[in-house]
Task: inverse folding
């Protein structure tokens, strides 16, 4: 999206330039590809400090509103590493209203000793998203994603599982975007409450609702490049499919215009965190009326499968080879 950098004394001119750029037809086309509504007369502008990203100075955060479970938000933080491809220490925490559920990693262990400090960091991102949602600017029938950063000049990389509790210098919103249309889940509040009682819970990270009998889709394995999906679409015109994605396929930024246009199921290799790159194919699958299943261990059983059956109620999901 249009961005201008300059001095605060020139903010009026910078805003004028951004408004001119927002009328570009390419912006509308990009928004359509991303699955979002766009009107150049209804653009929300933000003015924030220019953060100079130095060595381990920025904590990047993502809040994802659950499109099927009212009151549920998934918060992901990354400490260290600037680009998608760089490694860093991550923390994931799901919230049912004000109740927090830290997410264990795939082996059931938490690498963090100071979980209370990390949960407090996640709550700051949640509070920011609640503030924006409460302003009534965005439609209530769409789930949103909020990207933010916490800036700290002296923030150090997590070492030996302990994060230093240094004073933070600010929380800044960097992006709000539509994630998916809201669709009610086929589960009860009691079912949602049970998630908190499960040992090593994988939280609320299954998105999307299928018919009770499930959906059966051919499975395309993108282990080397996104070209695997393009080839499948060229050879099977009009056929929807499930995309089994390994993480290294997503280290480059994705746009929905050049990959996965008929994907109905996003099946990433299970991991706890949702990030900027993983969100794009998830948005595509959900906007196609399908599912995005994060941290679902059943997906591991489908490696090499030609076809999968998926049953999802918005909270729980099963994936099996057929």
Result:
């Amino acid at each position: 999206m249009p961005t201008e950098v300059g001095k605060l004394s020139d903010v009026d001119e910078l805003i004028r330039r951004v408004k001119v750029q927002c009328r570009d037809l390419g912006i509308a086309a990009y928004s359509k590809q991303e699955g979002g509504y766009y009107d150049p007369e209804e653009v929300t502008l933000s003015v924030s400090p220019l953060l100079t990203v130095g060595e381990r100075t920025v904590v990047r955060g993502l809040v994802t509103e659950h499109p099927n479970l009212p009151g549920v938000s998934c918060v992901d933080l990354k400490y260290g590493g600037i680009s998608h491809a760089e490694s860093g220490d991550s923390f994931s925490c799901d919230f049912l209203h004000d109740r927090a559920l830290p997410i264990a990693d795939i082996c059931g262990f938490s690498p963090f000793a100071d979980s209370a400090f990390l949960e407090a960091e996640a709550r700051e991102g949640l509070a920011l998203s609640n503030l924006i949602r409460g302003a009534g600017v965005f439609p209530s029938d769409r789930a949103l994603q909020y990207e933010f950063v916490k800036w700290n000049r002296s923030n150090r990389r997590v070492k030996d599982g302990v994060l230093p509790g240094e004073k933070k210098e600010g929380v800044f919103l960097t992006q709000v975007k539509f994630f998916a249309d809201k669709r009610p889940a086929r589960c009860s509040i009691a079912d949602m409450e049970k998630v908190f009682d499960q040992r090593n819970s994988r939280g609320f990270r299954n998105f999307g609702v299928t018919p009770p009998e499930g959906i059966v889709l051919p499975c395309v394995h993108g282990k080397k490049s996104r070209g695997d999906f393009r080839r499948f679409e060229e050879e099977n015109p009009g056929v929807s499919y499930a995309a089994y994605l390994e993480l290294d396929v997503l280290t480059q930024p994705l746009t929905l215009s050049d990959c996965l246009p008929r994907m109905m199921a996003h099946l990433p290799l299970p991991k706890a965190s949702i990030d900027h790159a993983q969100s794009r194919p998830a948005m595509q699958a959900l906007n196609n009326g399908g599912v995005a299943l994060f941290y679902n261990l059943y997906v591991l059983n489908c490696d090499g499968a030609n076809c999968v059956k998926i049953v999802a109620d918005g909270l729980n999901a099963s994936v099996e080879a057929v």
